[in-house]
C-alpha cells in the first residue's frame, strides 16, 4: 500500500511538472491588465517627463555628407559685386516708382539678366481662390495653383526667371535661388533682396566651376510668397498650354508674353526650364533691427504636413553663416515661453537632477544650463507647433511638395539702409553666404540623403532625431491596448487567453476557446455607437463645403451655422440608429471601443504628421484613460470622488477642439482670448493649405471627445444592478 501511494504521488508530481505554463508574454499581459490603472498612470507620467526632457537630450548638428565640404574654397564674391548690387538697386528703385502693375520692374530685371548673357523668361500667374473641397486633402496643392482664367483683367503676378547653363554640367540638375518682392508696393528691404540676388546671379554667370544649372526666380509676392513660387513650380513640372490672345491694354499674353501698351507687338519670352532641382534657397532681407550687435539670419524649414528638408542643408547654412560670415543664426521660438516662470522652475529642477546623475555616471549629460533649457524648450515648442499645424512657414514649402530640399533665410540687418558703407558690407557678407551654399550643393553627386529628414530643432545647431522624440509618444500609447483588453471583458478574457496559450498546440483547445467566446456579441453595440459617431464626424467635416456657398457670411455666422448643423445631424443620426444608451451598452465596452479607435487614429496620424499625433496624444490619451461615468462613483469616498470628478471634467473641457485652439493661441501669441469666429478662421486656414491636421481634428479627435462625453454621462444601470446582485 505504501509503495502504491508513493507511486501515485510521483505520477501526480510528474504530471504537474510536465504541464506547460502560459507563455511569458501572456502572463505579462494578464499582470498588466489586472493593474491597468497603475500602469496607465506610470506610462502617462513617464511620457510627459520624457517630453520635458527632450531639450536636454538634443544633440549638436553635424554634416553627414562629406561631399558638401562647406567653406573649403575661398569666396569669389568681392566688393565689385557689392558695388554692382548697389547700382542695380538704384536702377530698379527708379523704375519701381513709374512701374504699372509691376511690368516695368519685371522688364528691367529681365533686361539686366540678358545683358549678362543669361537666359530669361517670364511667368504669369493668377491669385489662388479659397474654396473648400473635400477631395482637396487627397490631391496635390500645386494643382490648385494652376493658372485658371477668372475673368479679371489686371489681377495677376509676374515672375521673372533667369537661367545660367553650367559650363561643366550636362543640364540634368539645377540649383534654384528665389528672391521674393511685392511688385505693387516695393519696400527698401525688398529692393535690397533683389540687389543681393542679382549680384550673386551675376557672379555665378562668370563661374567656371559650376556643374549644375542656376535658376534665379524674382518672385512677385503680391498674392503671397508661397503662391508665386508654387505657381511657377507647377508650370515647371506640369506644363500648361494657353492661347496667346491679347486681354486688353496693359496685360500679359498667356503665361510668357508681356505687352506694355506702347508697342504694337508684345515682348514674348518662352517659358524655359533647367534640370532636376537639387536644392533651393529662398532669401530675403527683413526689416532693420534697432538693437543687436551684429546682423542675424533666421532659418525657416517647416513645410506642409510636418515635412522638413534634409538636415545637412541647414547645417551648411549654419556653418557658413556663423563660422565664415559672422552672422547670428536664429530659429523661430515661442516668445511667451521665454519669460515663463513655471518653465524656469522645471529647468532648475532638471538642472539639479542632471548634476546629480552626472556625478553617478559622467556620460549622462542632462545638466544643461537653465537659460539654454528655456530657450531650447521655446524653440522646440515652436518647431512642434509649426510641424503639427501642417502649414509651410515660407515659400520653401512649395519645393518640398516636389521632394526638393529647400530652406528660407531672412536677413535682419542692424544698419540703416541709407548707410552705404554698412549696406555694402552687408551685401558682401550675404553674397558670400549664398555663394558658399551654392558651392556646397554644386559638389553633390546625388540628392541629399545622408542626414535626417525627421527631426525637431531646439537651436540652430541642436536637433532631436526621430529615435529620441518617439519615446514620449510610445510611452503615452503603451497603456492603450492593455486598458482596452482589461475593459473588454475583465480578467476573464485574459485568463482564457492564458488557457488558450497552454493548449495552443492542440486543435480542440483553440476551437473550444472560440466556441466559448462565440456567443458574446455585446461589443457589436459599442461598435455601432462608434460607427454612428464616425459617420457624424465625416458629415461635420464636409459641412464647410456648403457653408462657404452662403454669400456674405461672416466667420462668426459661419461658425454658429456649423455648430447648429452639427448638433442637428447628431440628433438625426441618433433618431435613425438609436441612442447610445438605448441598447444597454456597458460603459466599459464603450470606453474600450473609444481607446481602440484613438489607438488606430494616432497610429495612422503618426505616419502622416508625427507632430500632430504627439500633440493630440498629450490631450486625448489622458482624457480617454481616466474617463469614468459620473454616476459610477457612488461607492467612493468624498476625496477620491471629487478628484476624479474634477479631473474628468477638466480633461473633457481641454479636449474640446475650440479649447485646444485657445491653448495653442495662448502659447504661440500670448493671447488667451478667442472669439467664436476664430475657430472658423482657423479651420479655413487649415483646409486652405490642405493640412492633414484638419482631418485629424474631425476624424480622430472630435469622435474621441464625443465618445468620452458619452462615457461620462453613462447612466450605469447595468453596473448598479450587478452590484445589487452581488
Automatic annotation (TrEMBL):
Highest taxon above the source species: Eukaryota
Key words of the record: Membrane, Transmembrane, Transmembrane helix
GO CC terms, sorted: GPI-anchor transamidase complex
Biological process, per Gene Ontology: attachment of GPI anchor to protein
TM segment ranges: 30-54, 466-488, 529-547, 559-577, 642-664, 693-713
Pfam families: Gaa1
InterPro entries with a match to the protein in the record: Gaa1 (IPR007246)
PANTHER family found in the cross-reference section: GLYCOSYLPHOSPHATIDYLINOSITOL ANCHOR ATTACHMENT 1 PROTEIN
Protein name: Glycosylphosphatidylinositol anchor attachment 1 protein
Organism the protein comes from: Dichanthelium oligosanthes
Amino acid at each position: 500500500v505504501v509503495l502504491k501511494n508513493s507511486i501515485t504521488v510521483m505520477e501526480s508530481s510528474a504530471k504537474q511538472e510536465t504541464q506547460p505554463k502560459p507563455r511569458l508574454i501572456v502572463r505579462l499581459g494578464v499582470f498588466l491588465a489586472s493593474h491597468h490603472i497603475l500602469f496607465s498612470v506610470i506610462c502617462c507620467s513617464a511620457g510627459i517627463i520624457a517630453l520635458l526632457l527632450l531639450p536636454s537630450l538634443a544633440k549638436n548638428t553635424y554634416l553627414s555628407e562629406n561631399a558638401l565640404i562647406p567653406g573649403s574654397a575661398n569666396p569669389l564674391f568681392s566688393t565689385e559685386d557689392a558695388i554692382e548690387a548697389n547700382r542695380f538697386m538704384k536702377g530698379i528703385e527708379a523704375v519701381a516708382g513709374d512701374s504699372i502693375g509691376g511690368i516695368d520692374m519685371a522688364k528691367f530685371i529681365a533686361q539686366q539678366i540678358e545683358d549678362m548673357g543669361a537666359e530669361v523668361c517670364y511667368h504669369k500667374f493668377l491669385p489662388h481662390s479659397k474654396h473648400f473641397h473635400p477631395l482637396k486633402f487627397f490631391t496635390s496643392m500645386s494643382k490648385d495653383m494652376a493658372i485658371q482664367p477668372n475673368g479679371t483683367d489686371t489681377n495677376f503676378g509676374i515672375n521673372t526667371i533667369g537661367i545660367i547653363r553650367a559650363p561643366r554640367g550636362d543640364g540634368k540638375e539645377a540649383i534654384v535661388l528665389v528672391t521674393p518682392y511685392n511688385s505693387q508696393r516695393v519696400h527698401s528691404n525688398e529692393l535690397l533682396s533683389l540687389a543681393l540676388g542679382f549680384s550673386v546671379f551675376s557672379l555665378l554667370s562668370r563661374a567656371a566651376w559650376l556643374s549644375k544649372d542656376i535658376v534665379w526666380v524674382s518672385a512677385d509676392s503680391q498674392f503671397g510668397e508661397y503662391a508665386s513660387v508654387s505657381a511657377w513650380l507647377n508650370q515647371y513640372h506640369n506644363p500648361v498650354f494657353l492661347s496667346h490672345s491679347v486681354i486688353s491694354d496693359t496685360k500679359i499674353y498667356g503665361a510668357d508674353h508681356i505687352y506694355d501698351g506702347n508697342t504694337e507687338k508684345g515682348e514674348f519670352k518662352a517659358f524655359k526650364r533647367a534640370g532636376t532641382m537639387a536644392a533651393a534657397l529662398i532669401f530675403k532681407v527683413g526689416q532693420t533691427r534697432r538693437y543687436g550687435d551684429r546682423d542675424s539670419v533666421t532659418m525657416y524649414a517647416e513645410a506642409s504636413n510636418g515635412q522638413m528638408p534634409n538636415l545637412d542643408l541647414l547645417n551648411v547654412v549654419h556653418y557658413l553663416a556663423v563660422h565664415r560670415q559672422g552672422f547670428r543664426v536664429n530659429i523661430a521660438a515661442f516668445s511667451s515661453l521665454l519669460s515663463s516662470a513655471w518653465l524656469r522652475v522645471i529647468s532648475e529642477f532638471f538642472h539639479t537632477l542632471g548634476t546629480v546623475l552626472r556625478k553617478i555616471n559622467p556620460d549622462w549629460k542632462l545638466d544643461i544650463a537653465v537659460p539654454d533649457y528655456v530657450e531650447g524648450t521655446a524653440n522646440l515648442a515652436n518647431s512642434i507647433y509649426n510641424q503639427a499645424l501642417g502649414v509651410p512657414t515660407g515659400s520653401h514649402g512649395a519645393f518640398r511638395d516636389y521632394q526638393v530640399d529647400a530652406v528660407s533665410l531672412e536677413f535682419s540687418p542692424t544698419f540703416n539702409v541709407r548707410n552705404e558703407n554698412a549696406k555694402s558690407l552687408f551685401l558682401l557678407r550675404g553674397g558670400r553666404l549664398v555663394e558658399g551654399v551654392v558651392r556646397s550643393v554644386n559638389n553633390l553627386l546625388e540628392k541629399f540623403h545622408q542626414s535626417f529628414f525627421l527631426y525637431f530643432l531646439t537651436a540652430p545647431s541642436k536637433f532631436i532625431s526621430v529615435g529620441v522624440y518617439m519615446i514620449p509618444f510610445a510611452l503615452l500609447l503603451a497603456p492603450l491596448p492593455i486598458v482596452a483588453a482589461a475593459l473588454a471583458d475583465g480578467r476573464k478574457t485574459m485568463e482564457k487567453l492564458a488557457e488558450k496559450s497552454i493548449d495552443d498546440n492542440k486543435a480542440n483547445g483553440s476551437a473550444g476557446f472560440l466556441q466559448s467566446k462565440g456567443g458574446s456579441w455585446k461589443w457589436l453595440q459599442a461598435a455601432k455607437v462608434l460607427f454612428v459617431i464616425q459617420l457624424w464626424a465625416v458629415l461635420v467635416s464636409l459641412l464647410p463645403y456648403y457653408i462657404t456657398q452662403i454669400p456674405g457670411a461672416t466667420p462668426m455666422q459661419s461658425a454658429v451655422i456649423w455648430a447648429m448643423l452639427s448638433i442637428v445631424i447628431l440628433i438625426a443620426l441618433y433618431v435613425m440608429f438609436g441612442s447610445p444608451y438605448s441598447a444597454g451598452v456597458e460603459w466599459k465596452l464603450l470606453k474600450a471601443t473609444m481607446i481602440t479607435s484613438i489607438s488606430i487614429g494616432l497610429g495612422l496620424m503618426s505616419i502622416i504628421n508625427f507632430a500632430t499625433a504627439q500633440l493630440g496624444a498629450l490631450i486625448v490619451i489622458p482624457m480617454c484613460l481616466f474617463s469614468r461615468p459620473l454616476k459610477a462613483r457612488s461607492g467612493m469616498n468624498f476625496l477620491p470622488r471629487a478628484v476624479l470628478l474634477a479631473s474628468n471634467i477638466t480633461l473633457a473641457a481641454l479636449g474640446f477642439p475650440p479649447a485646444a485652439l485657445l491653448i495653442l493661441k495662448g502659447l504661440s501669441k500670448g493671447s488667451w482670448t478667442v472669439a467664436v469666429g476664430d475657430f472658423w478662421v482657423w479651420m479655413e486656414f487649415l483646409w486652405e493649405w490642405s493640412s492633414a491636421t484638419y482631418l485629424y481634428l474631425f476624424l480622430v479627435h472630435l469622435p474621441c471627445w464625443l465618445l468620452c462625453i458619452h462615457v461620462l454621462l453613462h447612466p450605469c444601470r447595468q453596473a448598479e444592478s450587478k452590484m445589487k446582485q452581488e
